[in-house]
Amino acid sequence: MSTTPGVSYDKDGRKTLIPLENNPDVFADLARNLGVAPSLGFHDVFSIDEPELLAMVPRPVHSLLVIVPAPVYYRVREKQHGYEEITYEGAGADEPVTWFKQTIRHTCGLIALLHSISNGPAREFVVPGSELDKLLAEALPLKPRERAELLYNSEFLEKAHMAAAVKGDTVAPAGEEPNGYHFICFVKGKDGHLWELEGASDGPIDRGLLADDEDVLSEKALDAGIRRFTRVAEGNLEFSVVALADSD
């Protein structure tokens, strides 16, 4: 059992943490504690449809962290026939992306951050020899189940997450409270494709090929990615988007 303050266990004995707020400062703080260089910046994306607001984000964008309201999330997932049947056993350096299965409750923000910094250009910002660098190196050759066990048993990740979870602009909810949102990460893989990565799924989801000069905030990536959720939002505006790019 964990000795980290704030960590609890649900009725099934599954480890439960306090969820993260989708706040650039919270993610930046967590990233630094994990071992990510400060030259990787976390930037609010105030609109995915207004060019003048999109222009405020430094480019290229290495990855996107998106928080989606639960009702919208499930509305999109229900339209994906066979989604629940997807299985994935990828492992090793030949994977276009590195994917992590979430097994700790309320850690979709942490998993999204791990997806965003272990794939694409953002991986280069992980400090060599740091605890995070060692963890990602250990995880790379493992199958998804073994990767999940590695994360579940990592005291280093647990402590870093909990330290960040009590920060932010809103009061951190108790770990046992239901979570009304889902974090999703979008990255450009080694194969040039846009990948949707989420720990609650059964593997990475390929959203199509991007051109060499298209990043994850390009029009094509937005249409194939986050706009699939906003198009069915039915007026629900409780979305939040953080872009990972070079610091200002």
From TrEMBL:
GO terms of biological process kind: protein deubiquitination; ubiquitin-dependent protein catabolic process
UCH catalytic domain sequence ranges: 16-246
InterPro entries: Papain-like_cys_pep_sf, Peptidase_C12_UCH, Peptidase_C12_UCH_sf
Family: Belongs to the peptidase C12 family.
Enzyme Commission code(s) on record: 3.4.19.12
Entry-linked CDD domains: Peptidase_C12_UCH_L1_L3 (cd09616)
Entry protein name: Ubiquitin carboxyl-terminal hydrolase
Keyword Signal: no
Organism this protein belongs to: Cephalotrichum gorgonifer
Known catalytic reactions: Thiol-dependent hydrolysis of ester, thioester, amide, peptide and isopeptide bonds formed by the C-terminal Gly of ubiquitin (a 76-residue protein attached to proteins as an intracellular targeting signal)
Any single GO CC term annotated in Swiss-Prot or TrEMBL for this entry: cytoplasm
Keywords: Hydrolase, Protease, Thiol protease, Ubl conjugation pathway
Alphabetized PANTHER family for the sequence: UBIQUITIN CARBOXYL-TERMINAL HYDROLASE
Any GO molecular function: cysteine-type deubiquitinase activity
Keyword Chloroplast in record: no
Lineage top rank: taxon: Eukaryota
